[in-house]
Amino acid sequence: MIKRTSKANKGRGSLESGMEDQSSNMNNDLHQLFLEELADIYNAEQQLTKALPKMAKAAESDELRSGFEQHLEETREHASRLEQIAEQLGESIKRKTCQAMKGLIEEGEDIMKEEKDSSALDAALIAAAQKVEHYEIATYGTLATWAEQMGHSQAVELLRETLQEEKATDEKLTQLAESTANQKAQSE
Ligand SMILES: [Fe+2]
Ligand SMILES: [Fe+2]
User: Fold this and answer.
1) pLDDT digits (tens, 9 = 90+) for 167-177
2) Which of 16, 29, 66, 144 could form a disulfide with 159 if both were Cys (CB 3.0 to 4.6 A apart)?
3) CB atoms within 10 A of CB 6
4) How far does residue 164's CA lie from ligand 1's centre (Å)?
């Protein structure tokens, strides 16, 4: 019985060391991927700090305008959290253009021009902003999961904090759409 156990342990031991090699490769690849995605979302947040004031200026309703202004402050904080994460890991954030955010912002700008004199302008702004929030939610959810898998607990905490703020913003936009913008667009 004892013999069998020790044999089993030995067998499992060699299997484990094989798995360790694989998992350290996996950790390394995941680490690189994490840094790529960190650079991507950092650039996305920077693009947003430029786009949000324009969206706030375009908004018809005071509530939507102040919503955008508040999220601009949060967005700046999101970028600085990403810097903190990189610093904690002894890394620096690479320069990268987030093409997805670029596209979302361009679409938002187009729709702002098209709906400029329309009563549906706020509805259009909310739609554009929610697409942005959903992109951020997907990215922060992914980053938090990867950070957890790699045992970067401080990063997990910061990423989840941002994730919650993106989700709250998305919900607030839904409420604004339901309460004002969509009704206004329908009534005129
Ligand atoms: Fe953000
Ligand atoms: Fe956001």
Assistant:
1) 999 999 999 99
2) 144
3) 10
4) 10
pLDDT surpasses 80 at 163: yes
- Smallest CA-to-CA distance from 112 within 43, 57, 47, 32 is with 57
Q: How far apart are CA 109 and CA 53, in angstroms?
A: 12
Would the pLDDT of 181 be above 70? Answer: no
Please check whether residue 170 lies inside any domain of the structure: yes
117 is a domain residue: yes
CATH assignment at residue 168:
1.20.1260.10
Res. 27 pLDDT band, cuts 50 70 90: confident
| Spacing, Cα 48 to ligand 2 middle (Å) | 8
The total of other beta-carbon atoms located within 10 Å of residue 73's CB is 11
Please tell me the number of the ligand nearest to residue 78's CA: 1
Residue 92 in any domain: the answer is yes
Residue 22 lies in a domain: no
Mean pLDDT of 135-144: 98
- Closest ligand to Cα 76: 1
Domain count, the chain: 1
Cα–Cα distance for residue pair 81/83, rounded to 1 Å? 5
Structural domain containing residue 99: 30-187
74-104 residues labelled b (16+ CB within 10 A) or e (exposed): bbeebbebbeebbeebeeebeebebebbeeb
Enter the DSSP assignment of 150: T
Note the pTM of the prediction, 2 decimals: 0.84
